[in-house]
Here is the input.
Amino acid sequence: MGRVPPAGCGVCVHVLPSQRRHICCQKILGGTPVFVGTRVPAQVLFDCLEAGDSLERFLDQYPTVSLEQALGALEIARDALVKSSGLVPN
Here is the structure.
């Protein structure tokens, strides 16, 4: 897995410290959220899933992204959805 940037490094923004190992809004790609240690935009995961691809297929296509990172991105998205909807998680 890629290097985890230190807190306050100015590289990872818009994510909680515990999420820095998954998604990073780096200066590369113009601030697009990417998987840490890669140049793979997080949006690609959601595009693949929306197209009907499995998580396994995504990981095969983007081997620099770990299963932990992909699941972490899905968790971040879930948490954002729950927070914005006002729903209480189980």
Summary: The two ends are 30 Å apart (CA to CA). The chain is about 40% helix and 5% strand. Residues 1-16 have pLDDT under 50 and may be disordered.
